[in-house]
């Protein structure tokens, strides 16, 4: 075997070893998992947008049947406007402040919807409206889709964050400048306290 053939063979072996070591250190898996998390975030945004799109219809039906609840309906519409004005795109997923702002706006919107649904229970005539029942069912289903989307996003973030923080894949993550992503954390005031059932049973 000639010296040049041996040198070519050595370079090929070195190139293969370098490729394998880059693969082992997460050079390809880090962006793959990051893109998966971004896709899951798009699902979260779509679920919240669907909820925001339902609210005008829900508010219109409820307004016609319960003028005495105008203040609650106004709060729902205002919370919807605020929630839809706060946007977090895929490049903001590692910014805790942006995520917290988005989460707070969505939590406020959810609380307004809860107040509306509770007020409906006080007025049985409103519950008898077929359109309202249909929209209420859609809204409850949408809340469930939001929970599933958030759960899937957080699982994807956990997978990605584990990848960028563990050895040897953290090497590839550092080479790419990959930062951990922020999981979605719902903020419900008082959620740490168990609800009291006193006087309700």
Relevant terms:
201 residues, mainly alpha
Q: Can you walk me through this structure?
A:
The chain has 201 residues and is an all-alpha fold. It is 75% helix and 0% strand. Helix 3 packs antiparallel against helix 4. It is elongated. The termini are far apart.
Q: State the helicity in percent bands.
A: over 70%
Mean pLDDT: 76
Residues in β-strands, percent: under 5%
Which word captures the global form? Answer: elongated
- Stretches where pLDDT is under 50 for at least 5 consecutive residues are none
Number of continuous helical runs: 7
Radius of gyration: 25 Å
Largest sheet: none
End-to-end distance, in Å? 90 Å
Task: Give me the count of strands.
Answer: 0
Order of helices and strands: HHHHHHH
Helix/strand/pairing category: mainly alpha
């Amino acid at each position: 075997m000639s010296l040049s053939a041996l040198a070519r063979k050595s370079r090929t072996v070195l190139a293969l070893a370098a490729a394998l070591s880059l693969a082992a250190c997460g050079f390809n898996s880090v962006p793959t998992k990051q893109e998966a998390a971004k896709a899951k975030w798009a699902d979260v945004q779509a679920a919240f947008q669907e909820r925001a799109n339902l609210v005008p219809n829900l508010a219109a039906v409820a307004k016609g049947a319960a003028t005495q609840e105008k203040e609650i309906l106004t709060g729902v519409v205002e919370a919807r406007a605020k929630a839809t004005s706060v946007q977090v795109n895929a490049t903001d997923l590692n910014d805790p402040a942006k995520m917290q702002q988005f989460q707070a706006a969505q939590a406020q919107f959810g609380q307004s919807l809860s107040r509306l649904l509770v007020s409906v229970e006080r007025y049985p005539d409103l519950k008898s409206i077929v359109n309202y029942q249909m929209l209420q069912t859609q809204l409850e289903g949408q809340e469930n889709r939001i929970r599933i989307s958030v759960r899937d996003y957080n699982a994807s973030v956990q997978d990605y964050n584990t990848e960028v923080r563990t050895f040897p894949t953290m090497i590839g993550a550092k080479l790419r400048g990959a930062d951990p992503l922020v999981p979605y954390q719902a903020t419900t005031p008082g959620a740490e306290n168990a609800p009291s059932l006193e006087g309700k049973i």
